[in-house]
TrEMBL record:
Keywords: Cell membrane, Glycosyltransferase, Membrane, Transferase, Transmembrane, Transmembrane helix. Residues 1-50 are annotated as: Disordered. Residues 20-34 have a biased composition (Pro residues). It is found in: Cell membrane. This is Dolichyl-phosphate-mannose-protein mannosyltransferase. It is a multi-pass membrane protein. Its main location: membrane. It comes from Phormidesmis priestleyi Ana. PANTHER family: MANNOSYLTRANSFERASE YKCB-RELATED, MEMBRANE PROTEIN. GO terms for biological process: lipopolysaccharide biosynthetic process. GO terms for molecular function: pentosyltransferase activity.
Amino acid sequence: MFSSQPNSARPPHEPTRQPGNPPGDPPGNPPGNPPGSGLGSSPPKKNAQSANRLIETCSQLALALGILVRLVQYFSNRSLWFDEVAVALNLQERNYSELLGALSYDQAAPPLFLWIEEFALNTFGNNEFSLRLYPLLAGLLSLFVFYHFTKLFTARWARPIAIFIFSVQSYFIYFSAELKPYSSDVCVGLLLFMAVGSLASLRPSAKRLWGVGALGVVSIWLSFPSILMMAAIEATNLIRLKVWQLRKSDWQALLARRLPLYAAWLISLVGLYVGVVSKTLTETDLSESWANRYPSGWLDLFWMVDAMGQFFYRPLGFLSPADGIAIALFLVGIISLYRTRKWHLAYLSSPFIVTMLASYLHVYPFRDRLILFLVPYGLAILAEGIAVAIRRWQKRPRLVGILGLLLAVSLLVLPLQQTLPQLIQPSRTHFDEMRPAIAYIHQNWQPGDKIFVFRWSQLQFQYYRTRYEFDSDDVFLSGIEDFGLSHLKDNDIERLSKEITELKAGPLKGEKRVWFLMARKNDDAAEAIMQGLDQLSEPLEMTRYPTVVVSLRDLSK
């Protein structure tokens, strides 16, 4: 896939790379065992084969574990939460052509992603399983692509380490079962990394150019960060080819093959921006919500350090203090790769550099789930650092080696501690469980009942009410627009009391059974709201679901 020699014609005096060697390894080096790795002399052939089989077995077991936890999470079938429902309502209310416009509810998603979801909704029904099917398939495919990716960009035990972390980190698992494009961003990014990286020669075949060109054109409409991946890997290709040193004939060959490729990508990008992105930016508030995620200027180096530090927490998924350990071993990985496989490090770091540059240009935020697509390349570097720490545990000074081993093992144990509960009891990770809450209200509904829906529960109620029969005259939606999301603001209880008092004097006067439906509040906020309602009504019953409260109250007194 990645040629070890930039030019398509290999000099006759240069030895051929042995099969199984990662690209960039010197000919004759044992597969996956870079020089200077600290492993010492090559073991006997039989021992080397046995070690390689063990590494492959561990890699496959890690892959199988990743498949299992993603399927368990998917089939646990949690309710669609606020952001997912916002996308689902757009799919429910629009046809294919209308999905090309600015989405409602301050949402944005690539057009092809929306079309795939629209097809799933129309084909398999409007339910959680069909809406999350494509993210699941993208998450599973990402595992297999990453499995092959590690054959090229990790050495020996770094490979199963990278696959294991990729498989069990809860943040990655979660987005494989969410109605959002972040899981497919990872998958598309990996495919582009492998495909565009295969163009590291002056004269790639026309068939390969057509294939990579078509993949790039489609990817731009399927994944917003895909253009960043293409720019990063192709820029690294050109640097590796040392284009500034090319002869005129080589320049002509380069331009003849690559200009049509670049033109196709550019036309696709311009079409996406003019047809979709520009409408989204002008007709939604997304630009304002992203504003605080950008650096204040080109000299804002603190932002860059902070953004990279945050990357290890989210989306890489290491909670404190594991994120600090991950940062330290990530730096070890960078040093190790720089010493042994510089071009590997160049390719792995290029998506970070280009995405960071895009953030300084205020065109793409370098934060949280929006950079989930960078995780595979960060993991490849981190796994190298973990492998180095494990290999050195018996070297002097012994205390430093043992400490490094403990830190490395902790990065493998901690993610598993987060994932095992999800595997045993996936409902423990559920939140905004609005579907069972609404089902409970419907099941216990009596003639004459009314329902009051809090501000941040209304989109989910709007989506799920179609499965049940609630008369519009019986539904009252809170009109407090800026009511606190998770935490309460200073005057939220006062404003809520005023709203309920007005309803008691009007359409809810004398009502003995009014259901209150509330989601997305922390425990303290939920308790404060219930105490506020106690001053205005008599509680009859209360049922709790993950971050959802259902309370039946008598407003007649």
